[in-house]
Amino acid sequence: TARSSVGGNVEGAWEALRDEAAACTRCPLYKPATQTVFGEGPLDADMMLVGEQPGDQEDLAGRAFVGPAGQMLDRALEEAGIDRARVYVTNAVKHFKFEPRGKRRIHAKPDAGEITACRWWYEQELALVRPKLVVALGATAARQITGKAATISRLRGQKLALPEGGTGWVTVHPSYLLRLPDADAAAQAYTDFVADLRGAQALLG
Ligand code: URA
After folding, report:
1. Gap from CA of 9 to ligand 1 centroid (Å)
2. Residue 165 Cα, ligand 1 centroid: separation in angstroms?
3. Model confidence at 95, in pLDDT bands (50, 70, 90)?
4. CB 201 less than 6 A from any atom of ligand 1
5. In testing the pocket of ligand 1, which one of 36, 37, 38, 91 has its CB within 8 Å of the most ligand atoms?
6. ipTM of this predicted complex?
7. CA distances (Å), 130 to each of 46, 56, 202, in order?
8. Model confidence over 73-86: pLDDT tens digits?
9. Cα of 91 to ligand 1 centre, how many Å?
10. Which atom from ligand 1 is nearest to the alpha carbon of 91?
11. What is the mean pLDDT of the segment spanning 139-167?
């Protein structure tokens, strides 16, 4: 295909982009963070998964979704019949935002300005990977992929027309499942999350 004949260029462009992002100063989040956590996965992926931002472990490892939320995501993807190795996985915001509390770093939500500042990198990733489907995990990712303020309950489980073209799909963030205090509610929310991921996969045929 035309795409595979330019495969080398796509790879090189992605590496250049990742290296550029490593030096990003578009918003102040780069200062306290350890490093930029860029997206990763096959550049010909049909599906792009977008999280919120790296967490504590991702910030240290330099890789998306390797901590507790990532383990939850891995389990749900597997149950939904989606091979993570075939998905391009990234975040709406590429630096860890946190508040220090003693020796711990407590996750803080990225604000609209930080999400907008980081949109540049998402747009570049989108242009290179050109996925058929972009799946947003949680409200921050939903805002990034739709380009406007987003409510999960209103958007979840619907085919969305993205501003850059292509289809979007919104579900909850796996961290939300980890925070639910009630075991029955958590089990139900997990089942619903897996169903949303299955729905996403079904759109790809
Ligand atoms: N949560 C996210 O949204 N992304 C990660 O990479 C890790 C946790």
Report:
1. 28
2. 25
3. very high
4. no
5. 91
6. 0.93
7. 8, 29, 18
8. 999 999 999 999 99
9. 7
10. 4
11. 96
What is the distance in angstroms between the CA of the first residue and the CA of the last residue of the chain? 20
* 4 pLDDT higher than 80: no
8 Å CB contact between 99 and 136 = no
Cα of 137 from ligand 1 centre, angstroms: 9
Amino acid occupying residue 183: A
Which atom of ligand 1 is closest in space to residue 63's alpha carbon?
A: 6
Is 70 exceeded by the pLDDT of residue 6?
no
Please, what are the domains in the chain? 2-203 (3.40.470.10)
- The stretch 174-201 carries a mean pLDDT of 97
Identify the bridge partners of residue 167 per DSSP, sorted by sequence position: 133, 161
Q: What is the CB neighbour count within 10 angstroms for residue 123?
A: 14
Ligand 1 pocket check for 39: Cβ under 6 Å: no
Compute the average pLDDT of residues 50-60: 98
167-171 and 133-137 beta bridge pairing: parallel
pLDDT in tens, 110-122: 999 999 999 999 9
